């Protein structure tokens, strides 16, 4: 992993999303948690790639999105802060 990459970790409800949002507001490169977006999108479309419905499909989507986020981050300059990251190459 790059020495410019940082991962925010912590339990549910401790403020990871709030911290990432504030850091982005101040101009830092941030990447939100992929799981939250997948759940929101799947619920909106009536999909089943959800951790309580089809864990494998959910995990595959998380992996795909996290790999894409990591690849995109490599092209950015300066620090990049990830809100959780499934893949740490």
From TrEMBL:
Q: Which residue ranges run through the membrane? A: none
- Recorded superkingdom: Bacteria
Annotated NadR/Ttd14 AAA domain ranges read: 6-82
> What name does the UniProt record give this protein?
NadR/Ttd14 AAA domain-containing protein
Lineage, opening ranks: Bacteria, Pseudomonadati, Pseudomonadota, Alphaproteobacteria, Rhodobacterales
- InterPro entries in the cross-refs: NadR/Ttd14_AAA_dom, P-loop_NTPase
């Amino acid at each position: 992993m790059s020495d410019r990459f940082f991962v925010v970790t912590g339990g549910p409800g401790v403020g990871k999303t709030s911290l990432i949002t504030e850091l982005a507001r101040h101009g830092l490169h941030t990447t939100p948690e992929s799981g939250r977006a997948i759940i929101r999108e799947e619920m909106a479309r009536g999909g089943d790639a959800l951790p309580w419905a089809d864990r494998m499909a959910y995990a595959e989507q998380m992996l795909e999105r996290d790999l894409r986020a990591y690849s995109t981050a490599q092209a950015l300059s300066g620090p990049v802060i990830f809100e959780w990251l499934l893949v740490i190459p």
